Amino acid sequence: MTTGKELDNLRQSIDAIDDQLLALLNQRAELAIQVGKYKSGNPSEFYVPSREKQIYTRLLRENPGPVPDEAVRAIFREVISACLNLEQPLTIAYLGPEATFTHIASMEHFGQSARYQPSPSIRDVFSEVERGRVHYGVAPIENSTEGVVNYTLDCLVDSDLSICAEIELGITHHLMSLSGKIESIRRVYSHPHAIAQCRQWLDLNLPEVELVDITSTARAAEIVSHDETSAAICSELAGKLYSLVPVVRKIEDKTNNFTRFIVVGNTRTKKSGNDKTSVVFSLSHAVGSLYHALEVISRFDINMTKIESRPSKMKAWEYLFHIDIEGHCDDENVSQALDLLGQRSLFLKVLGSYPKSIPSRKGE
Ligand SMILES: C=C(O[C@@H]1C=C(C(=O)O)C=C[C@H]1O)C(=O)O
C-alpha cells in the first residue's frame, strides 16, 4: 500500500515531468515556427503529410510503452496540429454535416487546432478547395465492405486537385434513438452505405421496419431527434450531438469495417518512403489492352493495391480504370512505369502520390 506521503511524492514527480513536457512542447513549437519561415509563404506549403508520416512511423517504432501506440498517435496528432497552427492555421472542408464519419476522419488527421467547415456534397468539398476558400478538402473514397464512393472518383477525374494524403478509419455503426427502446422503432434512417453495412443485422432484428436512405448518417441522427418512432444508424458522435441514446451498439455485419478518406489540395506531396500513387487511365477497345496496361505494373515490380472501373461518361461502354499502386511517382520504377502506361493508354492522369495511412479506430 502506498502511504499518503508516498502518494504526495509520486504526484510531485508527475508535476515535475509535466513542467518538463510543457517546456519541451513550447521549444518544439518555437522550432516549428522557425521551420515555417523557410517555407515560401504559400499557405498550401505548410502542411507536409510526408514529414508527418515520418514522425509517426519513427515514434511508433521507438515507443517502449506502457503508453499504447494509439495514445502516442493521438497525443502527437494534437502536438503537430498545434505546432502547424502556429505556422499557418489550416482550414478544412469536409463532407458534412457536423459529426459525419468524414468529420471524424478529418479531426483524426488534422487535430483540434485546424478549422473545419462542413460542405453539403462531395462536389462542394472539391470546389471549396478549387476556389481557394479552404486549404484542403476531405471526402470518403472507399469502404472495406461497400466498395468505392463513385462520386469521389468522378470528382477526382474532373478536378485539378491532387490527393495529398489518405486517412483510414475503423467504422462502427450504432442504432440510436431518443428513447433507446427497440420496440418503439417504426423507421430506420441512415446513409445507404451505412444501411448496407448493417443489412444482415437489420434483416434479422428489425425485419418489419421501413429503411429510409438519407444523405448522411449525421443528418439521419438530426431527423430522428424530432421523431420518437424512428432510429438512426450513425456514429456515437452524431447521436450525442442530437441527444440520442444507443438502442444497440455495433450493429455492422463485418467487424473489420474500415473507410478510406482522401485529403485533396493544390499541392503535391513529397516522398515519405512508404507511399501510394493513384492513377486513372482509359484504353482503346482492342484485344488485350487492359492486359498490356497492367503488364507494365508487374514489369516494374510494383504492387497494385486497387483497381476499379467507371463509365467514361464521354461515350457509352467506354471506361476509366482507377488504380492504386505502391510507391511514389518520384520513385524511379513508378515514374518509368507511368511513362510506359501513358504510352499504352488513350488518357492517363496521376491523381496523387501520398503516404500510406496508419489505420485508426477512432470512428468506433
Ligand atoms: C514543422 C513543420 O510543419 C508542419 C508541422 C509539423 C510538425 O509539427 O512536426 C510537421 C509537418 C508540417 O505539417 C515541418 O514541415 O517540418
Automatic annotation (TrEMBL):
As its record notes, the protein acts as a catalyst of: chorismate = prephenate; prephenate + H(+) = 3-phenylpyruvate + CO2 + H2O
Q: What is its EC number?
A: 4.2.1.51, 5.4.99.5
Domain Chorismate mutase: from-to ranges: 1-91
A GO-annotated cellular component: cytoplasm
In terms of superkingdom, the source organism counts as Bacteria
Q: Name one GO biological process term.
A: L-phenylalanine biosynthetic process
Record InterPro entries: ACT-like_dom_sf, ACT_dom, Chor_mutase/pphenate_deHydtase, Chorismate_II_sf, CM_dom_sf, CM_II_prokaryot, G/b/e-P-prot_chorismate_mutase, Preph_deHydtase
Places the protein is found: Cytoplasm
Stored SMART domains = CM_2
Q: Which residues form the Prephenate dehydratase domain?
A: 91-266
The principal location of this protein is cytoplasm
Q: Where is this site: Essential for prephenate dehydratase activity?
A: T259
**Which keywords accompany this UniProt record?**
Amino-acid biosynthesis, Aromatic amino acid biosynthesis, Cytoplasm, Isomerase, Lyase, Multifunctional enzyme, Phenylalanine biosynthesis
Q: Which Pfam families match?
A: CM_2 (PF01817), PDT (PF00800)
Q: Can you name one GO molecular function term for this protein?
A: chorismate mutase activity
Domain ACT intervals: 278-355
Entry's NCBIfam families? CM_P2, PRK11898.1
Q: What's this protein's function?
A: Catalyzes the Claisen rearrangement of chorismate to prephenate and the decarboxylation/dehydration of prephenate to phenylpyruvate.
Q: What is this protein called?
A: Bifunctional chorismate mutase/prephenate dehydratase
